[in-house]
Predict the 3D structure of the following.
Amino acid sequence: MTTSFDAIVVGGGVMGAAAALQLAEGGMRVALCEARQLAMGASGVNAGTLSMQTKRVPLIPYALRGYELWKRAGDAVGFKETGSLTLAYTQGEAEGLVQRMTARRNAGAPIELISVTAARALEPGLREGLVAASYCAADGYANSSLTGVYYRGRLRAAGVDVRELTPACAMVPDDTGVTVNTPAGPLRAARALLATGAWAKTMSEQIGAPLPIRLRVNTVSVTERMPTLIKTVVAHASGLLTLKQAVNGTVLIGGAWQGRGSPDTWQGDIVPETLIANLRLAQYVLPRLAEARVLRCWTGFEAQTPDSVPLAGPMPGMSNLFVLCCVRSGYTIGPYIGRLMGDLMLGREPEMPLFDPARLVKATEK
Amino acid sequence: MLAPGAIERFYPRPGWTLPGVVGLGAAALMLKAGGVLPGRHVAVVGPGALAVSVAKLIVDAGGEVVAICDPNPLRAWAEALPAMARHPGGLAHGGAWLAGLALKGVPMYRGWDVRAIHGERDVDGVTLGRVDGQWRPLPKGERTIAADAVCIGYGLAPATDLYQLLGAARRYEPAFGGWAPVLDRGQRSDVPGLYGAGDSAGVLGAAAAPGTGRIAALSAALDLGRLDAATYERKTDAARHRLARATSFGFAVTRLIQPHAAAVGWVPDHTIVCRCEDIHADELRAAIAAGAQEINALKAATRCGMGPCGGRVCAEAAAALLECAGFSRERIGQFTARAPLRPLPLSALTGSFDYGDIPFPQTADT
């Protein structure tokens, strides 16, 4: 027996959950299928950085709005507005910092270049020898572990039929809608959204519309609880370090150093060389980290397009099947771009343009 | 070849975080390595031979054992005896200990378990009560006994974290003590070149460990081309013959120390389950009621298992609470293993380095 909905969302990370919410709030009967539980992939294991200083320039307008949505979620997602600092320790890094932060500022991010004295006044624990620094007051972090709990509550309240531990074995589009086959039976809707992050590559191949997605395996580490070492989100001009200290005292160390692994098996491995480089950079910037014990290091799977801009729109050549993935900095932007995608599927004009996947699929066919 | 042994299974009890409460394995180490008594009037709690052995060590070291409490009824021991008897020395071990203790008048409580451990700053007593065959409390008489220490543990489980990090398949097998790697007859895992032996491959005890170790080594030699097939068969046949007897003894012993979810289901809401993160039973129950089904979703929702122990102490209790909510152990799964498995000083990973040594592979942002 087929169960029918107005829309089916496949993938229960930030993107899928935010889109499902918008669809439900727009009056549709919505089902959300998630192979495991909500936000067990990148949405739930990323470092939680919500900083305009680490976002790509074309995504700044989206990130600003995503940030506001996380801020509104507040304690439920462990949101903290701490401000953020980005640091340069060489002349070359300083030049890159000025150039990139100026571009982000021009795109609307309230980032300011500050003196190294001001930076060290904000964070006395930083290594001396700073050459340049930038600051963004309206930045912070959230606790990505709480993403699943947060969205489960909101989705249920909005009346979304949340089907966890329900993998979509196949998504079959036709002229009038999409059938989603699950181990619990087929689901049917007039429209469906593929929002499975790094898992979208395999699924798009099964659908017959392979998307050009490259896998990134980002490394994150956390220390045991420490006395206060830093108060802001600290990043390095290279973009290869983020540091933040949670309220409980643990220090999260990120920076997208690459591990290895496969979404198909959910097995992500750290790579010693990149992990050590990540930790060295962290210790260089914040010397007292040397005293901390590392508790856990892990990886999260992130998907990336050749042009590093999201896939967000109709699947190429299809009218009722949509895709939303490959959003670098997807945690920050997710709540907002998911909402835009919901609007598109509701037949509304999204308030900001989306990113039509056709641009990339055309390019591959050449 | 992995041979990291077993880990102790702990079930939370009111008062189990008081100074003076010691794991059975830790107590055995204290007594054997240093002759250190855990207390002067000690209650020893746990199923199977380890509790008896610890009680014997305490008595030999001059301490008083105020009670030996085993949740198994006498019947379970009686059922295990014939298989134990098939292994030379197996019956003698347990039998001699029991006899020795009985002579000294140690009270034996079979079919009893701990209801609570008492004390303000240290242990000053323990309340025992009767349990059923599933180690579920019976509404019958309780007894409170004065004690200044409690040695407690609920059996052994294979240490699987290294298998997990290396991506080897595991299955839940209560007869092996819980989650154990999937191995073929030659002790090979599904990861080429990775073998398992000893209690980590399934808790069968010291008698079986040399056999699984020998077979694993022979398989490795065969797979490396250092042993011909005929010699391999001849040598493994001999090892298997000895192993079979040791295994029937091991299974008989392991059956007494299998996991029992019902032994956790009853614990009062205020009981600490995750000692590192101070997570109480009611917080876990609330997260389960709110939708956590996998143990990793429960971890994300509550922080249970995110502390310095890496979840080794609380994993079995957290899984038991999920099992009591009706989920299978396969669905519940295991805490994802996170390197470095044990807390490690960050400086031990970073070593000595110069800033210029850090390899910046690419600039992450543009």
